[in-house]
Amino acid sequence: MAPGGCLLLALLLLAGTAQGQHWSHGWYPGGKRDLSAPQAIPAWSPWLVPSRGRKSRYDPPAKSKASRLKVPPPVDPAELYVVTERYRQHRLVLSALRSIFRSEVVQRKREAQRDAEDSAALSEEHRLLMAWNDAENARQRARREERIR
């Protein structure tokens, strides 16, 4: 084997065992990077503020757009009528639903107040019945004690 062939064979064997990855971007030559090395931080990351921002409303327009006139899109009268009519109906339906909901809320509130008043009356009646029960129990106890004596 020729000395150049041995050299080529040695290079092929060494290239196969290299710990790297080849990156090539377009016509520009890439390079090898070590896969075990820590990855570099990308050019833009969340903690870095981008150097280019959006134009503010006070910045002048670009030269290519300086002579451009902004014209609103044309409006079809028939379509506008249909849309406004549907929107009017939509508002009517929503206002009806809101009034129904309001009346239900007021009715529930009144029922809760009535229940609270009824519960006050019921608790008073319960207290009177318990007092009568205690008095009756005391009377029966006294009667039994008289029998035993």
From TrEMBL:
User: From which domain of life does this come?
Assistant: Eukaryota
Signal peptide positions are 1-20
GO terms assigned for molecular function? hormone activity
From its record, what is one biological process in GO terms? luteinizing hormone secretion
Q: Which PROSITE patterns match?
A: GNRH
Q: Which residues form a coiled coil?
A: none
Key word Mitochondrion present in the record?
yes
- Region Disordered: start-end pairs: 50-71
> What are the alphabetically sorted keywords of the record?
Amidation, Hormone, Mitochondrion, Ribonucleoprotein, Ribosomal protein, Secreted, Signal, Transit peptide
Compartments in which it is found: Mitochondrion; Secreted
Query: Sorted alphabetically, which InterPro entries does this protein's record hold?
Result: GnRH, Ribosomal_mS26
Q: List the record's Gene Ontology CC terms alphabetically.
A: extracellular region; mitochondrial small ribosomal subunit
Q: Does the keyword Secreted apply?
A: yes
According to its UniProt record, which protein family does this protein belong to?
Answer: Belongs to the mitochondrion-specific ribosomal protein mS26 family.
Q: What is this protein called?
A: Small ribosomal subunit protein mS26
Natural source organism: Gallus gallus
Instruction: Write the gene name.
Output: GnRH-II/MRPS26
